[in-house]
Amino acid sequence: MGDFDFNNNSHRRYNPLLDSWILVSPHRTQRPWQGQQEKTAGDALPSYDPACYLCPGNTRITGEKNPKYESTYFFVNDYAAVKLDQPDYVTPQTSDDDVKSRLFKVQGTKGNCFVICFSPKHNVTLPLMSVPEIRVVINTWTDLYLKLQRETAFRYMQVFENKGASMGCSNPHPHCQVWCTENVPTDPAKELTSFGAYKAKHNTCLLCDYLSVELAEKSRIVLENDSFVALVPFWAVWPFETMILAKSHVASLPDFTDAQKEDLAAIIKTLTTRYDNLFLTSFPYSMGIHQAPIKPVGDEHSLAHFHMHFYPPLLRGATVRKFLVGYEMLAEPQRDLTAEQAADRLRALDDVHYSEKST
């Protein structure tokens, strides 16, 4: 039979963060594609759009007017997914033998949602912003974390950015969202559980140990600087999925030094530039920050290790998207190229944005 070939033979990889598995089928990249193709971005956007609800000085759909902001700007989401003021509710359990209350559980949850505009310019994205401008965004995330920690009873603050129409972004103005809830959401909670179980068994940090192997092997690392590594996780699901991982065991944004914030801004800019350069398009993705809860319980703060997930959907080019359907929805996630192959592609790219080369 010969030796096992990770670049050609199907195999499963373990995700220790979520205690799950993924099927890798690298030989499937050879199959022809006759499925759906995405539209690429159309005409270049203006720096200011009078019809945009997020541009400076414009009136939002609710009648609120944005200030003429010159840097980042955040406000309470006009259509928040969770509410601040509502009755408490937990499914009542009449007895231990009550099958309905055992299986049909409901838990009321309170919270708040925010929109953070990265820039007053309507036509920029993170790769087109400067490192100092991205540093201001990081400062805004940090300030909001501290404000919510001081002034609310929220447990968790989830920062995420949906970039591009194919990721459900309804407004191209550069922005992210922050959802804050009185509970820790499912995936961050699973990660904290995994961190705790690993620490109890090995007395070390799961991600610190993982990073030590990645730094030694180098095959999945895309970028690194003094404070952070950008890599394709060994267990990545999306074709060009990456993770930005703090080199030191730092729990959350407020724990960073100024130098670490500068390094985070720099690696975000370079990574997102590489994404755009991969298929010469404004590369869509969902990005999210995982860090310590705002109000940690027990040893959650000491267990947490700051990292950022980037989940981009493009597979073969600017118009071919990876869908999680069929086997992926009903059995387990599956990918068609290995993490190492994806890292090779991203590592080979230029750090100068393709649009800047043509001007």
Written account of the structure:
This protein has a single domain, classed as 2-Layer Sandwich (HIT family, subunit A). About 2% of the residues have low confidence. It is globular, with a radius of gyration of 21 Å. It is of the alpha+beta class and 359 residues long. Helix 2 packs across helix 5. Helices cover 27% and strands 19% of the residues. It has a 9-stranded antiparallel sheet with strand order 3-4-6-5-10-11-9-8-7, sandwiched between helices. A 3-stranded mixed sheet has the order 1-2-14, with no helix packed on it. A two-stranded antiparallel ribbon has the order 12-13.
Fold blueprint:
Layout: E1 11-15, E2 20-24, E3 73-76, H1 99-103, E4 111-117, H2 131-151, E5 156-163, E6 175-181, H3 186-202, H4 206-217, E7 221-224, E8 228-231, E9 242-246, H5 258-279, E10 285-290, H6 300-303, E11 307-311, E12 314-317, E13 320-321, H7 327-330, E14 334-335, H8 339-347, H9 354-357
Parallel strand pairs: 2-14
Antiparallel strand pairs: 1-2, 3-4, 4-6, 5-6, 5-10, 7-8, 8-9, 9-11, 10-11, 12-13
Helix pairs in contact: 2-5
Tell me the CATH architecture: 2-Layer Sandwich
Which spans have pLDDT < 50 for at least 5 consecutive residues?
31-38
Shape: globular
Q: How does the helix and strand content classify structurally?
A: alpha+beta
Query: In CATH, what is the class?
Result: Alpha Beta
Sheet-strand content, in percent, reads 15-25%
Helix content: 25-40%
Summarize model confidence as the mean pLDDT.
92
What radius of gyration results from the CA coordinates?
Answer: 21 Å
Total strands: the figure is 14
H/E series: EEEHEHEEHHEEEHEHEEEHEHH
The figure for the number of domains is 1
The biggest sheet, with number of strands, parallel, antiparallel or mixed sense and barrel status, is:
9 strands, antiparallel
| Main β-sheet, spatial strand arrangement | 3-4-6-5-10-11-9-8-7
By DSSP (H or I, 4+ residues per run), the number of helices equals 9
Tell me the CATH superfamily: HIT-like
CATH topology: HIT family, subunit A
Distance between the termini: 53 Å
